[in-house]
Amino acid sequence: MVIAEKIQKYIQKLPPPLQSEVLDYVEYLLAKADQETNREEKAWVDVSLSSAMRGMEDEDSPAYTVSDLKVSFG
Prior knowledge:
By secondary structure, the chain is mainly alpha-helical. The chain contains three helices and no strands. The protein is elongated.
């Protein structure tokens, strides 16, 4: 018997108020797992971004003027 089936059989034996508590706990665990996944993804994004930007701090930045920012249509 798989774990999900065992859990389901146990939950069916509980009164509805306790089933509700089990549901709350499962939702908490899902949120916690999602938060951990997001934390890991953010770490990878940070590593990727820092790797992509490596060395750019030494580059000369172009000097833009206000006239460079104006768009002309016509």
